[in-house]
Write a structure and sequence with these properties.
By secondary structure, the chain is mostly helical. It folds into two domains: about 90 residues, RNA polymerase sigma factor, region 2, helix turn helix motif (Rna Polymerase Sigma Factor, Chain: A), CATH 1.10.1740; about 55 residues, no CATH class. Helices cover about 70% and strands about 0% of the residues. Helix 1 crosses helix 2. The longest helix has 23 residues. The chain starts with a helix and ends with a helix.
């Protein structure tokens, strides 16, 4: 980062801390690209990064009165940004949303992917067991075997519908209600 930009951020934060609300546009102009790049490195997804950058700007404005003048303003802002990035990561993991970013530290989010792999394996096993209970004709209608040539479309749809219903019943018997 250029020293001029760092100095402009420092001056804008100090002016805002002194009550000069006119410093806000200059602060946003200087901080937005820096915060967006920082958040994007931490999250990898532009919409999530924009949300975090906006939240950081709100936090900076609401907490500017707490700013210690002996500290570097950019370091203070990055501390707030780091907290917000970690909060967003926890939200995404809690909602089981994935975010693709190769810059995460090793082990970050590993428990979620191991859990997802275990769930996927269990669901595949239940599906295989449910499919094992169906007849060859039902499997064929669902696309797991040779198709019946020359059948009329309404008849095919009805057979497929009945095969899916038998699959649903087998699934519920094995796995429970969805």
């Amino acid at each position: 980062m250029l020293p001029e930009r760092r100095k402009a951020i420092q001056q804008a934060v100090l002016a805002l801390a002194d009550g000069d609300r006119g410093a806000m546009p200059a602060l946003v102009a200087e901080l937005w690209p820096v915060l967006l790049a920082f958040a994007k490195r931490g999250l990898g997804d532009r919409p999530d990064a924009e949300d975090v950058a906006q939240e950081v700007l709100l936090r900076v404005c609401s907490r500017v009165s707490e700013f210690d003048r002996s500290r570097d303003a950019l370091s203070w802002v990055f501390g707030i940004a780091t907290f917000e990035i970690m909060t967003q990561r926890r939200r995404l993991l809690r909602r089981r949303e994935s975010f693709s970013h190769s810059g995460f530290p090793e082990g970050c989010g590993a428990s979620a992917s191991l859990e997802d792999d275990a769930i996927r394996a269990e669901l595949k096993a239940v599906l295989a067991e449910a499919l094992g209970e169906l007849s060859a004709a039902d499997l064929s209608e669902l696309g797991f075997g040779p198709q019946t040539p020359g059948a009329k479309a309404p008849a095919v749809r009805k057979r497929r519908q009945r095969a899916l219903e038998r699959l649903r019943l087998a699934w519920r018997r094995i796995y429970g209600e969805p």
